[in-house]
């Protein structure tokens, strides 16, 4: 008979279990959520999800099924398709999967930290990652599944890579992680480079093992061929390049940045991300429009915070390399690799800044933070981590609660980011969709003085007026929006169609209304 002692959970599993359990407790509130914004297009209304016969199109067309930015995340979309086929239109089940995935990622972060930095650092890193408020958008938004899958696959690959010698079975498992990471989200393509840096900086130098060398060579060849196949295959039906003229300055203000501003604005964004990592108070689903802007001003504290963060990263990386703290150097370099894609420093992307983009890089940064805290006096270090975890848990649960209801989240976010035209438009749109176009128009007119240069505000006013059958007013609003953005001509045509449909049903009603 198996003894009770042998049934105990190994001590090495404690950090991962603690992180996973904490993540489950803190994010249990997200199970009451529904569809938010992109969730509706990606996980609910995409016609390709309807039946297995159409799932092939998830792998041959873009993520948004006609989006301008050519995102390609077929594995993420396939998980939505399978779920919808199994359980139908039940948003809580989509949230359940995200909930479990985040717990798994938190456990993986703790396990990698345990293997490379010790038990105490693993507890700290895993628990801080589990409750950090900047992750709410990923876990509570169904489309955050792409970040969850990609991050989990990357950390599992690093965990498998840690032990030497590298066996064939673990090499196959690492390759399988790449197969999951790459089609889950674009950041997954960085995995081979991360593994290379990990091997150079973290692997202990051991005796020469011919079998391991052969295994490594085969793994390199397999990952290189898989990456090449992905790039060539994708390019054959979905080009990486897309027309930057479609960049909307309301979503991506850096489209207007020129000269020195084009160089300094990524530092401003770094300052915003640094603030969100250290003090995640004013969280928001949107940071475009007039929130951050397109000009880097010397009096902007975020510019100087970004410069300080960049210097701190450079200093920390050089210090860790000189002191041969390979794992710290790896974490800092890996975080920078991922951030480089979304920083707008290399190329402009569709949106300026999003909290969800920090999910993967934050994991590496929080491991470094956990290692630093583990070196403190045990009493004070433990007390500080407990305080951080408690504060993070409260902030995360209160913010995740807002995400359970679109209208509540919009009201909450628009108060905290009053300069976001997108949030103002979404508040009015929610009122209009729920049968309150007059209230929507009144709200938009109240916010109009700060957004007279925003075409989306005028378009929303046009739709609000049209819903009340005020056709002349609606046309005037639509014309103003069109003059601000000639690339958006659909609103005027939509209003004309709405008017024609109304007059067909009410032939005697031809007044201004």
Search tags:
single chain, 513 residues, mainly alpha, 21 helices, 65% helix, 0% strand
Can you describe what's shown?
The structure is a single chain. The protein contains 21 helices and no strands. It is globular and about 90 Å long. The termini are far apart. By secondary structure, the protein is mainly α. The model has no long low-confidence stretch (mean pLDDT 87).
Walk me through the topology.
Blueprint: H1 14-26, H2 38-44, H3 74-87, H4 91-117, H5 119-131, H6 136-140, H7 145-162, H8 168-184, H9 191-201, H10 210-237, H11 260-278, H12 301-322, H13 326-342, H14 359-374, H15 378-403, H16 406-416, H17 421-433, H18 437-447, H19 455-467, H20 471-484, H21 490-505
Helix pairs in contact: 1-4, 1-5, 4-5, 4-7, 4-14, 5-14, 5-15, 7-8, 7-9, 8-10, 9-13, 11-12, 12-13, 13-14, 16-17, 17-18, 17-19, 18-19, 19-20, 19-21, 20-21
Total of DSSP H or I helical runs spanning 4+ residues: 21
Assembly state here? single chain
Q: Could you estimate the helical fraction of the residues in percent?
A: 55-70%
Q: What amount of the residues lies in strands?
A: under 5%
Short description:
With 513 residues, this protein is an all-alpha fold. It has helices spanning 14-26, 38-44, 74-87, 91-117, 119-131, 136-140, 145-162, 168-184, 191-201, 210-237, 260-278, 301-322, 326-342, 359-374, 378-403, 406-416, 421-433, 437-447, 455-467, 471-484, 490-505.
